[in-house]
Predict the 3D structure of the following.
Amino acid sequence: MTNPTLAPQSDEYQQIHNGIVQLLDTARTQTVRSINTIMTATYWEMGRRIVEFEQGGEARAAYGEQLIDRLSQDLSQRYKRGFSASNLWQFKKFYLYFQKIEILQTVSGESLHLAQLAKSFPLPWSAYVRLLSVKNPDARTFYEKETLRNGWSVRQLDRQIATQFYERTLLSHDKSAMLQQPAPAEPNVLPEQAIRDPFILEFLNLKDEYSESDLEDALLSHLMDFMLELGDDFAFVGRQRRLRIDDSWFRVDLLFFHRRFALPVAR
């Protein structure tokens, strides 16, 4: 007596297959979300500790910049990537811009467990990075709330900031109608794409570390793949270019141009 064959096209097989696919996609999405919230809480807590250390007296405040550089050197030596001085300054700025989270600190002043603190950051870290570029506190709060309310992707948030949606809403005679306008639709981000978020890869140290020159050479040698990762809006301009900002000149490793926003993007 032969065993029955399970046909891939059968309803029974499709039911279990589709159920497992949905389970895995859900698990991956939740994993990315969990990593993002823990990552964001970690960076906020790092910023808090840096600020509080610097505020511990005049002597500490005097070597605040040395603290950032020293931490960057030691953390980079231990964890390899993700802790450049500019990143640490960003964590400090993140804490200073979002100090309202401090109300969740315990009475004794001790830090909350990261899992508890993470509940205060419903947006992905990449969204908070965009919000840090908004200097007006009221505008920043507006974009944060609207991102949460509308479920904007990071690209949609970028577009709304670039087109001054906050200012346009203030000037509008019908603010409620402005707020009801949907942001341009974005394709759904697959779990496989979300897990490749560079911030997440950096946080988890999932890629080998390169020196700046090695990284630049690697990006150029795989320029097509790199451009595909950036998206269709980016065009490569050149390497080791000089840029003038106000009265100062700066040299950038790689220079790109963002077609939609008509802006240069430097690395």
Summary: The CA atoms of residues 54 and 61 lie 5 Å apart. The two ends are 68 Å apart (CA to CA). Confidence is low (pLDDT under 50) at residues 106-111, 208-212. The longest strand covers residues 234-245.
